[in-house]
Amino acid sequence: MMAESGLGMFFLRFALLLVNLFTLFLAYPWTSAAYYSAWAKNVEIDGRRIRFSGNAGSFFIVWLKTLLLSTITLGLYWIFIGKKNTARWVDSNLSWA
User: Which of 13, 33, 83, 95 is the most buried (most CB within 10 A)?
Assistant: First the structure.
């Protein structure tokens, strides 16, 4: 089943984008955690569900570290390592339900 299909996920992504725009992306860790939680509820692999256990606080640390190191290294950290930090954080918080 495709987790990102359907109007529900579309409207959720749009609403979270609006929240991010209004807060100048300061709410990005919280909206990301909310999105991945909703996404995981819609995923089914071989008849099994997955569970997302991440929270905004743990993602905030990953996000802040990536932002600071990317600023210090003039974007080089983002190019080589930073892009993968979110994927690693999501993967580490997924488990079978």
Answer: 33
